[in-house]
Amino acid sequence: ALPAVGNTKPLKVSDGVALPLLPSILTVATEDYPLSRRLYFYSASNPKRTEAVSKFIQFVQSNAGQAAVEGSGYVAQSLFAVPMDSMNDPRLTEWHRMNLNIRFVDGSSRLDNKSLNDVKRLADYLALPVNQDRKITLVGYSNPHKNVSQSALSRLRAQNVRWALRDKKVSNKVITVAGNAVSVADPKSLNAERNRRVEVWIQ
Description:
- With 203 residues, this protein is an alpha+beta fold.
- The protein is built from five helices and five strands.
- The protein has helices at residues 25-29, 51-61, 63-71, 113-127, 150-167, and strands at residues 81-83, 96-103, 136-141, 174-178, 197-202.
- A five-stranded mixed beta sheet has the order 1-2-5-3-4.
- Helix 2 crosses helix 3 (63-71).
- It is globular, with a radius of gyration of 17 Å.
């Protein structure tokens, strides 16, 4: 929990050759920070689980539930946008970074379970009247691998997210691009899958 940092000075942490990052609500929510970890709930699938369990899971995923998560000191999944220095990619000048990364099933271009929920959260966010005319840029990344076109893989991931948003009836203008080669994890580490991601930027 970030409040545990207290008055101590947090240090930048790097996963091998990746860019060192400070812990923050943004870097933990996007899972770019190497020491960030998901909190999992395990339950029986419907209809075996009880109604109380289903209601609890629904509450945790709701805005009220995420407010409780934030109040407890953990990083909530409620969406917000942050102005960022885009010197590494001039295409994103004056764009704001959303506090989520869309990630994929290992070895696949399919969105993982958390990302399916994140797409719904993003669709609900864009459906708000204040956001209906805002533009979205989806920036795809792939884990570096020789003899493979990183640009094609990265753009395919971004396109998959775009289609997922269209399935949720999102009508905002959505741009898909392949990102510059920025690794958040060492390509040879256990966290290498974090490089296979789509960042969400909004204007």
